[in-house]
Write a structure and sequence with these properties.
By secondary structure, this protein is mainly α. The protein has a domain of 78 residues. Helices cover 85% and strands 0% of the residues. The chain contains 2 helices and no strands.
Length: 122
């Protein structure tokens, strides 16, 4: 036996423990690399699926908002039409009153104008 703290080289070159450890480490590294590639692919696929789900949800929400905006637009048009009709009715009634009672209409208009003027002056 020798005095060296290191084990002696094996008699056959194929049984070197350093080479076996190196081969084992390379094999483990290849397995880890393959597992990492597989996980990365899975994550990429999951992210793509989630992105598609979010895109669909956003599209549905956008469509719902467009529908609501359309409903509000129609409601606003209806309200505007009703207000316009009421204004036309009031104008016709005011013209009728002015023709039937011109003095009263003139005094009423003067009084309203005076009050509005006093309010706006403040």
């Amino acid at each position: 036996m020798s005095d060296s703290p290191f084990p002696s080289a094996p008699d056959s070159p194929g049984t070197d423990p350093l080479q076996a450890a190196k081969a084992s480490a390379l094999k483990a590294a290849d397995e880890l690399r393959a597992a990492a590639v597989q996980k990365a692919g899975e994550l990429r696929q999951a992210a793509g699926e989630r992105a598609a789900q979010l895109k669909n949800a956003a599209g549905q929400t956008a469509q719902d908002l467009r529908d609501k905006a359309g409903e509000f637009g129609h409601a606003a048009q209806d309200t505007l039409s009703q207000a316009r009709a009421q204004c036309e009715d009031l104008l016709a009634e005011a013209e009728k009153m002015a023709r039937e009672k011109p003095r009263q209409a003139l005094l009423t208009a003067f009084g309203v104008g005076l009050i509005v003027g006093l309010i706006l002056r403040r």
